[in-house]
């Protein structure tokens, strides 16, 4: 059992879910669904984004903060 | 009555008066003595004379007495070198004298202070300043590569209303083979501007998205 914080990026800290407890085998999609964050993805603490089906429990440390960011952002040639 | 008997009678009366006066004086002295005072005396402590450790003196019912238990101040009885933690354990384990509740001292309530909610740019050490009506964010994009090394690339995000423009200096060469590599356009060496198809709405989204592209480029995978 690990306790993490999920913060929604760009909300200036107004939307933050503290004390989110995850159990072994929990995936990012489980957390996003549990918090009602459809259309978001979780960012890795050391850069990059989690796959939706990765083992989130193994990838984060106890007490870590993980940012959720909108998944519809995309670079392109303007 | 014969005239010779009158002085004798007076002498007897005088002796009787002296005896009565003497008894009166003795009674007055006895009354003023503290041991025999029957009245209440507040705040007297029980006399410890002749008392064994842990036993209390017999107290009469008419005398209000304040009893100070011997375990009232355990620190006074213990040596000064004894640590507070050890003293606490002893106090918890040892009951007081019969009838007296044990004195239990626990640790104070801990004060927990956690970090305040912060945006990702601030959490990652970026700084922000105002310039010509825009917010300018400066810092480093951070990505861990497949070898476990933390790579850092200078970054800048300029935010105006409805316009978020991210820049990166000296991006990795691996970005050339990434599908989004063409969206990084050199504007002023060594700075590249990232162009949007679906733009970020704030600096956090821009920073985290570019770190995601960099991680994909450095680690050879795309989401």
- Number of helical segments of chain A? 2
End-to-end separation of chain B in angstroms reads 147 Å
Number of DSSP-assigned strands of chain A: 5
Give me the CATH architecture of chain A, please.
Roll
Give helix % range of chain A: 10-25%
Rg of chain B (C-alpha, Å): 48 Å
Looking at how many chains there are and whether they match, the oligomeric state comes to: heterodimer
Q: With helices defined by DSSP (H or I, 4 residues minimum), what is the helix count of chain B? A: 5
Number of domains of chain A: 1
CATH superfamily of chain A: Phosphatidylinositol 3-kinase Catalytic Subunit, Chain A, domain 1
Structural class of chain A: alpha+beta
The largest beta-sheet of chain A arranges its strands as 2-1-4-3
Average predicted confidence as pLDDT of chain B: 78
Estimated structural class of chain B: alpha+beta
H-E order of chain B: HEEHHHEEEEEEEH
Strand order of the largest sheet of chain B: 3-4-5-6-8-7
User: What do we call the CATH topology of chain A?
Assistant: Ubiquitin-like (UB roll)
| Count of individual domains of chain B | 3
Shape of chain A: globular
Low-confidence stretches of chain A: none
Structure, briefly:
The complex is a heterodimer of chains A (78) and B (223). Chain A has 78 residues and is an alpha+beta fold. Chain A has two helices and five strands.
Spell out the key features of this protein:
A: 78 residues; alpha+beta; Ubiquitin-like (UB roll); 14% helix; B: 223 residues; 3 domains; 6-stranded antiparallel sheet
Describe the SSE topology.
The complex is a heterodimer of chains A (78) and B (223).
Chain A: E1 2-8, E2 16-22, H1 28-34, E3 40-42, H2 56-59, E4 65-70, E5 74-75
Parallel strand pairs in A: 1-4
Antiparallel strand pairs in A: 1-2, 3-4
Chain B: H1 6-32, E1 44-45, E2 65-66, H2 74-77, H3 84-93, H4 120-123, E3 127-131, E4 134-144, E5 150-160, E6 163-169, E7 184-188, E8 191-194, E9 196-198, H5 203-219
Parallel strand pairs in B: 1-2
Antiparallel strand pairs in B: 3-4, 4-5, 5-6, 6-8, 7-8
